[in-house]
Design brief:
Layout lengths: L17 E5 L8 E7 L4 E6 L8 E7 L3 E7 L9 H10 L2 H7 L1 H13 L3 H32 L1
Antiparallel strand pairs: 1-2, 1-5, 2-3, 3-4
Amino acid sequence: MGDAEIKASQWRLVEVGRVVLFTVGPFKDRLATIVEIIDHKRILVDGPSSKEKSIVPRHAAALSNVTLTPIVISKLPRGAGNGAVRKAWEKAEVEKKWDQSAWAKKREQTLRRRQLTDFERFKVMKLRKQVRYEVRKTFAKVRSTEEENA
């Protein structure tokens, strides 16, 4: 018989230690970790953060108010206390991983773009046009040299 290759699913599972991002409510855009699963719609979360504005106190949250991230704090025991969660959070470098993720960078960029004034949007448009012109110019030069060589 052939060898069977067994892989874990790529889905983001609701599990203890999974880092979540709040999408609505008073903790919108803050990170927390799942400490306990209450039922199929609610979880107990705790978000110890090094930034004072990003702290999420331990409370029950609805799964409809959060988005699961790919970051998981491994080997976090169910119902872990506040201190244990903080130590595991710092050991796993959750905030550093989040800041380096493409998801966080894209969210930051859209937030920055949303806050631009009309004149700043105009400047961005002009800069993008300049970049596009330079790229097309160099591409045309490369294409013309290849046509001469062919």
